[in-house]
User: Which sequence fits this backbone?
């Protein structure tokens, strides 16, 4: 019976395994976002959070231990400077793991390991897109799409600041799950994060409104029309304000019935014709 088997072995010896994890932690601190397999990401996140805790301490002992662990000395100023100030108020949870499907070949589960609040934070962009989509849906209930394209949506920062102050159970423009993600993401960020989030939301709203117009212009330029006379959309793609069902969207081009060019074969057409005189 095995006792005390706490961590993964990765089919490697102790020295090889520790060198691999040290290399992954160093790459994570250098790029702040790496892609690896899911088991390696979980063990790397466990060690990375301990090293960031050493960076927050900042004493001589912590510097010696971090220097002995990391493989690149140029990462140390980033650890004791940028990361220590970024996570000064955060009690823990400095890393985030996103599952990224399976790897071609051996079908191993792949994940993206990133540092929280990094400049390329995936959760930040995902939340901005969710907010932009829900704000645009709310605006389309009272205004026409063409009016929104001409005037735009300018109150995104006020909406974010209002939703940020709402407590649990209160209703607002956003869905409860989206509001909870936004509040959790902005909890330990400064006021500049609200402005950045507002810009990202506005950019995504412009993208949602401009995509159908660009597709229509491309359609008119190439003069390719469908049976209904509208510009073609891919399966599952919809324009803002579209009220079609999910089944119609999933069918895509297969849902468009092609009209026959020849005559319709009916009983009157077949048997009602007069024979040709010889």
Assistant:
């Amino acid at each position: 019976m095995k006792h005390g088997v706490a961590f993964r072995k990765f089919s490697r010896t102790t020295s090889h395994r520790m060198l691999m994890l040290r290399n992954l932690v160093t790459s994570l601190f250098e790029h702040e976002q790496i892609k690896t397999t899911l088991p390696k990401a979980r063990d790397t996140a466990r060690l990375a959070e301990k090293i960031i805790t050493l960076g927050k301490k900042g004493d001589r002992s912590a510097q010696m231990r971090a220097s002995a662990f990391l493989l690149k000395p140029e990462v140390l100023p980033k650890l004791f400077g940028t990361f220590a100030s970024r996570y000064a108020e955060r009690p823990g949870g400095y890393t985030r793991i996103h599952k990224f499907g399976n790897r071609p070949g051996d079908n191993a589960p792949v994940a993206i390991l990133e540092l929280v609040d990094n400049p390329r934070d995936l959760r930040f962009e995902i939340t901005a897109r969710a907010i932009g989509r829900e704000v645009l849906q709310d605006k389309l209930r009272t205004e026409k799409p063409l009016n929104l394209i001409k005037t735009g949506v300018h109150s995104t920062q006020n909406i974010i600041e209002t939703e940020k102050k709402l407590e649990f159970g209160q209703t607002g423009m956003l869905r409860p799950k989206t509001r909870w993600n936004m509040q959790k993401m902005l909890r330990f960020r400064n006021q500049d994060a609200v402005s950045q989030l507002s810009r990202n939301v506005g950019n995504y709203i412009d993208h949602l409104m401009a995509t159908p117009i660009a597709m229509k212009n491309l359609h008119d330029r190439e003069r390719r029309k469908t049976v209904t006379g509208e510009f073609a959309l891919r399966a599952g793609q919809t324009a803002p304000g579209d009220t079609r069902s999910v089944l119609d969207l999933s069918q895509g081009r297969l849902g468009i019935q092609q009209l026959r060019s020849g005559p319709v074969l009916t009983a009157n057409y077949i048997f009602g014709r007069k024979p040709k005189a010889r």
In short: The longest strand covers residues 95-102. Confidence is low (pLDDT under 50) at residues 225-229, 255-261. Strands lie at 33-37, 95-102, 109-115. Residues 265 and 271 are 10 Å apart (CA to CA).
